[in-house]
Amino acid sequence: MKRSTAEILYRFENLRIPSRSDIIELLKMEETVPLFSAADRMRRRYVGDQVHLRGIIEFSNHCVKNCLYCGLRRGNKALERYRMTPDEIVEAAREGVRAGIRTIVLQSGEDAFFSAAILADIVTRLKELDVAVTLSVGDRPKRDYRILREAGADRYLLKHETAHREMFRRLRPGTTLEGRKKRLLWLKGLGFQVGSGNMIGLPGQTVGILADDILLMRELDVEMAGIGPFIPNDNTPLAGCRGGDVTMTLKVLAVTRLVLPAVHLPATTALATIHPEGRQMALRCGANVVMPDITPVRYKKLYEIYPNKVCITEDGPGQCIPCISGMIRQSGRSVATDPGHGRRSWSDGSQQRG
Ligand code: 5AD
Ligand code: SF4
């Protein structure tokens, strides 16, 4: 290991304020073992060996937006669209809870059919199952977020996708990075545990932009960071692009663990899609969360953000959760039995300066 790399890792492990140039140096490093080991130690020290399962229900693939990278974009006429009914959503959650899930994530495209009132009613019913509820339903007016929070939603995922202003504007027509940040701040102000995140391997991305992604998540003091590779979808304008690679995705995960030590970091389905051992590798590079897809199988194959998504043939949580739990135990970790709320220990003032 180069002396400078050892020094950078020492600084990070001792919670010094990270500099952009140090982050860039780590992301460029060819020898990844020291970085991955440091992230694994940090993960153990701050969030322990338990892995949290978040059961995700993809309840609608309708979307009004037209993001260039995403298969749910409204311009994709090749996709068969669906909406689950509130009863179907609650039943899917109940099955997940029976299989051991303690957090339900409701995810959809930006679908106005699901008004705040309809979603609030679903949230209220889910809270009766004694679970934490995470929402991932995109850009909404602040009053909607308030209604959902008052209905009992605990967390909100709104990935910033890329911290590069121009790239954001190009990839997400009609929206701005400032708009995303404003919403993330609203959500925090309303008392949600907030998650953001980004994609690795977007066209035109540089390691400097990836460093900015990590620093933005630190600035926003997020409690969850969803980081996965971009996977090109043939039915989008980004068909034929290269997409993200496994090593860079793992490096960004590892550096994020060093920069936000107590963050919840999922081993994403996207990473498992581009590498059969993707989840296991992520769990060794700082990740402490897995998000099994508990959407009924007839719908989940239509939630085609990117192609060849893994785990879309399991019949339901009864099969999927034992399979994922087995993988977690084989990785030498245990499955958490509590809802795994966020902690704020990297921003509690205990960190050293300098
Ligand atoms: N590859 C990987 N992830 C994608 N997402 C959208 N399109 C793609 C793609 N082609 C991710 C975005 C979004 C989440 C729902 O899916 O990060 O936030
Ligand atoms: Fe819609 Fe989200 Fe896909 Fe953009 S990334 S098209 S907002 S589902």
Features:
354 residues; alpha/beta; TIM Barrel; globular; binds 5'-deoxyadenosine; binds iron/sulfur cluster
Task: Report on the architecture of this protein.
This protein has 354 residues and is an alpha/beta fold. It has one domain (19-333): TIM Barrel, CATH 3.20.20.70. Helix content is 42%, strand content 13%. The chain has 14 helices and 9 strands. The protein has helices spanning 3-13, 20-28, 33-47, 86-98, 116-127, 142-150, 165-171, 177-189, 207-219, 246-259, 269-274, 278-284, 297-300, 317-330; strands at residues 50-60, 103-108, 132-136, 155-157, 193-200, 224-229, 266-267, 289-290, 334-335. Strands 1, 2, 3, 4, 5, 6, 7, 8 and 9 form a 9-stranded parallel beta sheet that branches. α9 (207-219) links the parallel β5 and β6. The protein is globular, with a radius of gyration of 19 Å. Mean pLDDT is 94; it is low at 344-354. Residues 63, 65, 67, 70, 72-73, 109-110, 138 line the site of iron/sulfur cluster (SF4).
